[in-house]
Specification:
Blueprint lengths: L2 H8 L13 H22 L2 H27 L3
Length: 77
């Protein structure tokens, strides 16, 4: 079975078809890199420091959005 045929069969399962001369191994390496990066990010964000950083970041974002909403609605047209 050729690489493009295999990749064509795998497109139904969320794996992208190789485009522009990329081989099936390139696609698989990219998928592994994304999966490994996601696992590492998950471990970092679920640690104690990660949870604190996420809470502070989300609080700052919500506060900033609320301030923006307040300023934009109180401004004369």
């Amino acid at each position: 079975m050729s690489g493009s045929l295999i990749a064509g069969l795998l497109t139904g399962y969320g794996i992208a078809m190789p485009v522009g001369g990329a081989s099936l191994t390139d696609v698989i390496e990219t998928e592994q890199l994304l999966a490994g990066g996601g696992a590492l990010l998950g471990r970092v964000l679920t640690s104690r420091k990660g949870r604190v950083a996420t809470a502070l970041t989300s609080s700052a974002l919500i506060t900033g959005l609320a301030a923006h909403l307040l300023v934009s609605t109180c401004r004369p047209p």
